[in-house]
Design brief:
This protein is mainly α and 468 residues long. It is built from 22 helices and 2 strands. It has one domain: Sodium/glucose cotransporter.
Length: 468
């Protein structure tokens, strides 16, 4: 396997260097650097969107999630991602219409303009920072743990994490968003190819789908039904998960940015369809990997199970490609989210272009360092940590919907209420307050409250045009 790893690593790093330098030549202005010229076609759009959406937990977290919790994970992921595609089409139309009225510099700036105060922008930035930095960190940590388990004598976990962050920051800083998009597209293809090759090898071990399900039923029949062996997939979990996942394109800046920078609405719709197809193509093989683990490695730790299914049970060339695929998956999400945080930071500051861009680049480096530190301290529960990140950013959705759909300046009430709900949700995660109220999950309850509250505030607010 070693010779294949060396070969693939050289090719992969060489491609990243080429992409960065090629993209740098096309950067003629801050807009080119931050928004890739706002002229992205559907092919590049859907690949970068999908690669950003499906990351390390696709290859590491999702198979383990199926292995432990069973078929309910398909409802949790595939059905929710189908709803997400609808949100891209519907919200994308209205978001692009809104930003066409004025120059777009970020969601934070859009919120400040729409609400007529700075509080909304700062609340949004605080929310995405608090929940996206941990999400980036789990991508880095997942790959670092895997690489350390594979090559225990080469680097410690923090050493692998540092290498990943340095690579990510280098090509992001050089080529801007366009370099990230090209890199994401290539990395998404690697991930999709790797996961299907490994899934087919696992299915071959069962000798077909029918035998796979028979073996799983014999090993643990609860894996074939909901709520699953752990009782995780109850109604509230599935409903709350559906809501928070479908709201990802609304609340997470790396995805809203990709909607805005599309060439036109037609290309946006094509991109959404591509994302839906990609989602099903990449989630389905994780079922096979998970059930393979449920039969062969039911009691192994996550790290040991992943190492065996991706490396030790595969031919050398496939195992080497899996390692590159994991690194690529981590980079394809981490680079986009770190860069998006930099974009949002830029939208909150003002001054000469050169000074603003310098601060933005420094902020991107700072966010990368923050993700590195958190990756060293975070848990190994990749999928559940990812869901917490989605749930946290979902609380920002009512405020964003108000900014996009309402023509009223409703003042600071909605941003203040959003901030209060973020504090309550974080407190429930830390165990300071109960995570349920009236037998309803806290994240679901807070999201419903913010939705109703925002509607009432808008109902009794005066129209902006009338105020003028």
């Amino acid at each position: 396997m070693t010779k294949w790893i060396i070969l693939f690593s050289i090719l992969y790093l060489g491609l990243l260097v080429y992409i960065s330098l090629r993209s740098k030549k096309k950067v003629k202005s801050p807009v080119d650097y931050i928004f890739a010229g706002s002229n992205i076609g559907s092919a590049l759009g859907f690949m970068t969107f999908a690669a950003t959406l499906f990351s390390t937990f696709t290859l590491m977290g999702m198979p383990d999630f199926f292995r432990i919790n069973g078929v309910g994970a398909w409802i949790f992921l595939a059905v929710s991602d189908g709803a997400l595609v609808f949100l891209i089409v519907w919200f994308g139309f209205h978001l692009r219409k809104k930003v066409s009225e004025k120059e777009f510099s970020g969601i934070s700036s859009l919120l400040q303009s729409s609400f007529g105060n700075k509080i909304a922008g700062y609340v949004y930035f605080a929310g995405v920072f608090i929940f996206l930095i941990p999400y980036v960190a789990i991508q880095i940590r997942g790959v670092s743990i895997f690489l350390h388990a594979t090559f225990p004598a080469f680097l410690p976990v923090w050493g692998w994490a540092l290498a990943i962050v340095v690579i990510m920051l280098i090509y992001s800083e050089i080529g801007g968003l366009k370099a990230i998009m090209y890199a994401d597209s290539f990395q998404g293809l690697i991930l999709l190819t790797v996961i299907w090759i490994i899934a087919m090898n696992c299915l071959r071990w069962f000798d077909g789908f029918e035998n796979m399900f028979a073996a799983v039923e014999k090993a643990n029949a609860a894996l074939l039904s909901v709520p699953g062996p752990e009782g995780l997939f109850n109604v509230q979990f599935l409903v709350a998960s559906l809501l928070v996942i479908m709201l990802i394109p609304v609340t997470q800046p790396q995805l809203t940015t990709r909607i805005v920078v599309m060439k036109n609405l037609k290309e946006t719709h094509k991109m959404a369809i591509g994302v839906g197809i990609f989602a099903n193509l990449i989630i389905f093989p994780t079922v096979i990997l998970g059930y393979y683990g449920a039969v062969r490695y039911p009691t192994e730790s996550t790290a040991d199970f992943i190492a065996k299914v991706l490396l030790f049970d595969q031919p050398g060339i496939v195992a080497a490609l899996a390692i590159i695929g994991l690194v690529a998956a981590a980079l394809s999400t981490s680079d986009s989210q770190i860069f998006a945080l930099g974009t949002e930071f830029r939208s909150l500051i003002s001054g000469p272009d050169r000074k603003v861009m310098l601060r933005t680049r420094l902020a991107i480096i700072f966010f990368g360092i923050a993700a590195l530190v958190f990756s060293i301290l975070s848990s190994d529960e990749l999928v559940m940590l990812a869901r917490v990140s989605f749930a946290g950013t979902a609380l920002l959705a009512p405020m964003i919907f108000t900014a996009v759909f309402s023509g009223k300046r409703s003042g600071p009430m909605i941003p203040v209420a959003t901030f209060a709900c973020l504090v309550i949700f974080i407190s429930s995660l830390l165990g300071w307050i109960p995570d349920q109220l009236f037998h309803i999950r806290m994240d679901l309850l807070l999201l419903l409250f913010l939705g109703v509250f925002s509607l009432l505030v808008n109902l009794f607010s005066r129209n902006e045009t009338n105020e003028k």
